[in-house]
Specification:
The structure holds 2 protein chains of 2 kinds. Chain A is about 55% helix and about 0% strand. Chain A has 1 helix and no strands. Chain B is mainly α. Chain B has 2 domains: about 90 residues; about 100 residues, no CATH class. Helix content of chain B is about 80%, strand content about 0%. In chain B, α1 runs parallel beside α3, α2 runs antiparallel to α3 and α4 packs antiparallel against α5. The termini of chain B are far apart. The chains are: A mainly alpha, B mainly alpha. Chains A and B meet through α1 of A and α2, α3, α4, α5 and α6 of B.
Chain lengths: ~35, ~190
């Protein structure tokens, strides 16, 4: 999980959002036939 | 059955469904089997990383993480389903790409819209809010720009424009977040 770069508190919302966005990019690469 | 167990079962069902679609794709187009394998393994790999990193130890957080994993699994399973449908000749190839990209754009809009509404208090609330607002806006605008690209542009141009848009969004987000985090003290400055 991502953490705050200063106090190391967990950044739950950011982790979830970036996980979802990463899935979209992988999906886009697969669907477009780029990989 | 607890909410976590329900989500685990849904996740397993989605992973099995994606494996089934990937198998159909593999039987029809063996040369691109590794793409299906990559799709099938993505969610289990993410799940394993989350378990190993103990991110799922807190039940309240675990429910939210499982929701995210299910969202990702629905998209990947849907994409593999469309690929299987194209391999079987049920869907024309161009429209499978367009549908896949549209779902991707819509998810970016939904995620971007919800991101600034769940501000996490860290050591700097202002900086956290800035980062979440910035990423939220980046996701929403990227999604809104991607919709007409994938709906209206001829396929060869749509591929280049759509993927360039994502690359530009990643570069912009990375650059902007770096700028925000390098500011010495953002709590004292206004929002």
């Amino acid at each position: 999980m991502l953490t705050c770069f200063k106090c190391s508190k967990p950044r739950m919302t950011l982790t979830a959002a970036l996980l979802a966005a990463s899935a979209q990019i992988i999906l886009a690469l697969v669907v477009s036939g780029s990989i | 059955m607890t909410p976590i167990q329900t989500r685990q079962k849904i996740l397993i069902a989605l992973i099995l469904a994606s494996a089934g679609f990937a198998l159909v794709g593999w039987l029809q187009q063996p040369e691109s089997a590794w793409v299906g394998l990559l799709g099938v393994l993505t969610v289990p790999a993410a799940w394993t990383v989350l378990m190993v990193s103990r991110a799922l130890s807190d039940p309240a957080q675990a429910v939210r993480i499982y929701n995210s994993l299910i969202g990702a699994a629905v998209l990947i399973t849907g994409a593999l389903g469309v690929v299987a449908a194209v391999a079987l000749g049920i869907l024309p190839e161009g429209w499978s790409t367009r549908l896949g990209m549209l779902s991707s754009a819509l998810v970016l809009i939904v995620v971007g819209n919800s991101l600034p509404k769940k501000i996490e208090p860290g050591c700097s609330r202002t900086r956290g809010r800035r980062i979440q607002r910035l990423l939220g806006w980046t996701f929403v605008i990227t999604g809104l720009l991607a919709i007409p690209i994938w709906l209206l542009t001829p396929m060869p141009y749509a591929r280049v424009a759509g993927l360039s848009l994502y690359a530009a969004a990643i570069a912009f987000a990375a650059w902007s977040v770096t700028r925000i985090t390098r500011r010495p003290r953002s709590d004292s400055a206004g929002s």
